[in-house]
Amino acid sequence: MINPNDSIRFSNVLSRKYRFHYLDMNEALEDFLNDVGSLKAAVRGPLFYSIHNVPLDEMVNAEIFMPMEEDWIEPVEDMRFHTYFSIENMVSLCLAENVEAKTEAAYKLLFDYMEEHNLEQATPIFHVVSGDENFQYSFIKIGVSE
User: Fold this and answer.
1) pLDDT tens-digit map of 56-65
2) What domains can be seen in the chain, in order of their start residue?
3) Which InterPro entries match (predicted)?
4) What average pLDDT does range 57-81 have in this prediction?
5) What mean pLDDT is reported for the chain?
């Protein structure tokens, strides 16, 4: 079910931009999480990331984000610290189980919804990763404008 009134709102967010082959997504996430862990700061979560291109050449341009507890953290090289990260006016849906296999269909549902409601894409596609070791799910969100 599509949520037509969603948002992303976090404070004290670390981020880093990446370019990688789509099969190397887990390595990019591990690299980011290892560097966040090296800062000896408290992670608040959840991890989220944005996809900035359609990877027709199998290469993904992405930015990975992690909300932190601390009001300020000196980021490691090529990381950014955002005091506040907010995107309003988003459409979203939640995927559980086999998230990777369902992602393309979820994109289609969101873009079809946007077309039906005369909405334009205003942001990259965001994935907010949630859950625990036993049950993982992901919210896919896209900022829109009329």
Assistant:
1) 889 999 999 9
2) 3-145 (3.20.80.10)
3) DUF5085, Reg_factor_effector_dom_sf
4) 94
5) 94
